[in-house]
Design goal:
single chain, 91 residues, alpha+beta, 2 helices, globular
Length: 91
């Protein structure tokens, strides 16, 4: 299975709505590694790593769940970081 890493920036009303905790739960269901964290500018950053299908499904599920809060989703390719062995909330 091909492995990918994506850095995603979610813009909108994405802080203070349980975004990080829900994203961690969704990421765990899809068996991906990485992190999610709030950024000072009010956006949320997520690093998602794993099989292509899992990463894409995870991002789609987050967009579906928080669709009414997310105004914009920017996705960039990223290098896989093997130091992430789980998905965590970082600060």
């Amino acid at each position: 299975m091909d492995q990918i890493a994506r850095c995603i920036i979610f813009t909108g009303r994405v802080q203070g709505v349980g975004f990080r905790f829900t994203a961690r739960s969704i990421a765990s269901r899809h068996q991906i590694t990485g992190y999610v964290r709030n950024l000072p500018d009010g956006t949320v950053e997520m690093l998602a790593q794993g099989p292509v299908e899992n990463v894409e499904s995870c991002i789609a599920d987050i967009n579906d769940y928080f669709g009414h809060y997310i105004r914009k989703t920017d996705i960039q390719e990223y290098s896989i970081d093997p130091s992430y062995t789980d998905f965590r909330i970082t600060f």
